[in-house]
Amino acid sequence: MKKIVSILVLVILGFVLFYINLPVINYGFTGFAFILLILVFVAIVFSAGITVSEKTKQVKLAALPSKILYVLVAVLLAYIILLPLVTSTKMLRTDSFKNLIGKVEDGQKITNHIAPISIDKIRVVDEKLAYLLGEKILGSQPALGSQVELGEFCIQKVGTELYWVAPLLHSGLLKWFNNKDGTDGYVMVSATNERDVKLVQNVGGKPVKIKYQPGAYFGSELHRHVYFNGNATAGLTDFSFEIDDAGNPFWVITKYAKKIGFAGKDATGVIVVDAQSGAINEYSIAKTPQWVDRIQPLDFIENQLNYWGKYVHGYWNFSNADKLQTTEGLTLVYGKDNKSYWYTGLTSVGKDESAVGFVLVDTRTKQATFYKQSGATEYAAQSSAEGKVQEKGYKASLPIPYNINNIPAYVMTLKDDGGLVKMFAMVDISDYTIVGVGNTMRETLTAFKNVYNMADNKINPNSVSNKKTVKSIVTRIQNDVKNGNSFYYFKVKDYPNIFVGSSQISNQLPVTIIGDSISVSFDLDLEEVIDISTFENLNLRDSLKTK
Predict the structure, then answer these.
(1) Residue 30 — φ and ψ, nearest 5°?
(2) Selection from 264, 241, 260 nearest residue 155 by Cα
(3) Please, which residues have CB within 8 angstroms of residue 231's CB and are 6 or more apart in sequence?
(4) Nearest to 99 by CA among 312, 302, 263, 255
(5) Which residues of the chain have pLDDT under 70?
(6) Which residues contact residue 120 at a Cβ distance below 8 angstroms, ignoring those fewer than 6 apart?
(7) Residues with Cβ within 8 Å of residue 233, at least 6 apart in sequence
(8) What SS3 state is found at 112?
């Protein structure tokens, strides 16, 4: 009877430990071995028959544990401690760690990879601001706000637009118990327009109920639901909430394996879980649905890039020759091919102001491209932008790289202490002293291009390749003063766009009138209002020649 009770206790204890911890049962993972070790120690205690003498109060062993249990302890300790040292030590497996990222291609120009973009498509809402806006819309419905809380925001493309999307999660055990069928929807915040905030509670005429989520309990807890439905032997990470193009909510979970003994985490596929029904679909990387933006977890790619840069000349490189490291972190950007990429700068070890190049890594396939061009790190760009408005004390958001008229430039918001966007900034990646700030993105772009053009492109003379020159007659012209600078907006005959330039571009602009013949050069871009690079009033030139 005593043995039966002991076995029953071990079975119950083992089930509880596995149910709570969800260890991966596979080579390279130690969680399940730790649980087995605990169970073996408990079995040793039971089999030892420990008693306490009533007279002497001494602990005595009624029987010695089986030798098999001691052998199991030795095997498990070897698996947990010794085997990882032999198979996963960086000193012994340097090449394996270095090559974990795969082949890194050499890129020519980063502007060939990042698409030109119109200013109304530039990201002006970061994750922190998205959370503030999401909290605000949630707070506008007190009955809902008291029952749920916002989950983590993930950025993704929905159709052709960029959104931050976050699920509503249970705010506690009692809230889950009273609402087991799920929380009422999710929040969408436009990454390009802070006024576009939506609380989505119906899709296709049906109410949205997020039943399976990390904040749920028992079988509705997302990780447990996936684990006990045939995924106990695979590493699972990066539980991201995404919606398809129709707005249906899903959880996208990355499956991974250990490629270097007990280390070297590497994505092998994804599991897509319907957040409402719990239906599970598993995909290889190549066959993952197109609406899924991210398969490769940020921390995986960051570690693999750092291994690649650190072990460039092997493990014993104490002089740090040619060593590279990532800069501030990785940022999600979108390329010309409409694919998403992890972006980061690379600096030489020991230097943090100047980047020696930049890397784009496909968030689905992990294809990495290295652009060997010097420039500003994200931190240096932030400092430069903040310095431009230092009297206001604004803080810059994480810079996002963009292709501004074939000029690689960081774009960021400048926020006050309350996290609200007050201004915008653009910083030339090649030279962080070229900075433009403004109250609107239009003003910022104009200021940036004015500063860039006044620098006469000495930093990167080949960056602007799509220049055009137009000779025509002014049909309308009007000036506007912004931040102490005079800007002149004008139209010319037989050209549809509006042109704008400051008096810093040309001192002939303030004296130009309707009917004057002019010559302007500008960068071909996607904007309706075009910033000019040069301006010449041909009437004034001719009148000066006749004198």
Answers:
(1) -105, -10
(2) 241
(3) 255, 271
(4) 312
(5) 1-2, 48-65, 111-112, 115-116, 336-337, 350-353, 456-466, 483-484, 525-526, 542-547
(6) 192, 193, 441
(7) 24, 25, 26
(8) helix
Q: Which two tokens stand for residue 488?
A: 């002149």
Please say whether the beta carbons of 474 and 491 come within 8 A: yes
Cα–Cα distance, 313 to 318 (Å, whole number): 10
CA distance 17 to 34: 10
Is the CB of residue 208 less than 8 Å from the CB of residue 185?
Answer: yes
d(CA 420, CA 164): 17
Per the CB < 8 A criterion, the answer to whether 288 and 268 are in contact is no
On whether the CB atoms of residues 168 and 149 are closer than 8 A, the answer is: yes
Token pair for 319: 């002089």
Q: How far apart are CA 224 and CA 230, in angstroms?
A: 11
Stated as kind and residue range, the H or E segment containing 40 is: helix 31-48
pLDDT of 152 reads 94
The reported pLDDT for the residue numbered 377 is 85
| In contact, 193 and 223? CB cutoff 8 Å | no
Residue 133 bridge partners (DSSP): none
Q: How many CB atoms lie within 10 A of CB 172?
A: 13
Residues 6+ apart with CB under 8 A from 34: 23, 80
Query: Rounded CA gap, 111 and 327, in Å?
Result: 20
CB 401 within 8 A of CB 358: yes
Q: What interhelical angle do 67-77 and 31-48 show, nearest 10?
A: 160
Count of beta carbons in the 10 Å neighbourhood of residue 343: 23
User: H or E segment at 59?
Assistant: strand 59-61
Confidence (pLDDT) at 52 = 52
Instruction: Give 456-517 as a DSSP string.
Output: TT-S-TTS---EEEEEEEEEEEEEEEETTEEEEEEEETT--SEEEEETTT-TTGGG--TT-E
Euclidean distance between CA atoms 178 and 525, whole angstroms: 55
Look-up of token digits 């810079």: 399
Stated pTM of the model = 0.82
Q: How far apart are CA 113 and CA 103, in angstroms?
A: 18
Q: Is 147 helix (H, G, I), strand (E, B) or coil?
A: coil
Q: For residue 51, what pLDDT is reported?
A: 55
Residue pair 324/347 in contact (Cβ under 8 Å)? The answer is: yes
